[in-house]
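Complex record, two chains
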Amino acid sequence: MELLKQRILQDGKVKPGHILKVDSFLNHQMDIPLLDEIGAEFARRFAGVPVSKILTIEASGIGIAAIAARHFGNVPVIFAKKTKSKNLDGDILTAQVTSYTRGTTFDIQVESKFVNPGDHILILDDFLARGQALLGLIQLVQQAGATIAGCGIVIEKGFQDGGELVRRTGVRLESLAVIKEMSDDSLVFAD
Amino acid sequence: MELLKQRILQDGKVKPGHILKVDSFLNHQMDIPLLDEIGAEFARRFAGVPVSKILTIEASGIGIAAIAARHFGNVPVIFAKKTKSKNLDGDILTAQVTSYTRGTTFDIQVESKFVNPGDHILILDDFLARGQALLGLIQLVQQAGATIAGCGIVIEKGFQDGGELVRRTGVRLESLAVIKEMSDDSLVFAD
């Protein structure tokens, strides 16, 4: 997605530890017209694929998924929670996720009643690096016996193994910008 | 907002401890057309008030704010973070927030560069109960020397003191549904 790549080159900042800061437009401050273009692009890529709900994970995925839903017939958006909440009860779908960035392991959770066997779930998130969060979301959908329509990612760090791990599950993965390599003074996209 | 009140009566569930579960449409699964109506109602209530950015707090406020932004000329949306992240650097606006629900105290944070003295900030969130998160967001904006356009809340628990505390600061507060009292088998709205 050319518009997105240009924006990453213009406003993204590479930090030590392979961290790409895109917080001025994607995951701290959100550029709403850009999110709308991102949603439209996901809809183009998944054209013809049935989608009954969108699943994402708090926090950065939520804005992306909410705006994208408008391009998928206004389907409901569910966000998986990373912390136990008094608000969560009933049957819970859960998966363990390791965050290499934070050096922690945590459970992600969705109330079972929101994901049903007849659902076609599109999973959206902002970043794909080691793939642990995305694999966790895939597990949640599989636990519920629902169909995975596919996974849509805004920025994939193609030099890490997450994309490979997700594709190996057989799930269709569409990343709008894939970074082949990055260092303090350069950032190269795949293709 | 009548549509919202009807939805709360239809799908909300009151749990012990004055907890109102609205997770089937607002803060776990999100009903996007409803969020769009909510955004439109905020825009009606704040018509004529300059708004250059919307500020909310992760996680439940993000979807509401992202969709609402479309009704405020697509202004950028910033979400305050509740946890320290490697992605946060530079100058930080911070305020301490006590969560009575979780029994914890934590810092909320926004990178200073996103809130400037010339900004007119509309603060949006899903719930207002004891008002601590909202007062923290107000503090962040005041630290930056920006103008507060107002606060928009989807559901205010009118029987708790948050609304009074916020109004006492002189900031304009618009709540789309104010609950006067609630118990296991009844829920009464104000006005």
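Note: The domain at 2-184 of chain B is CATH 3.40.50.2020 (Rossmann fold).
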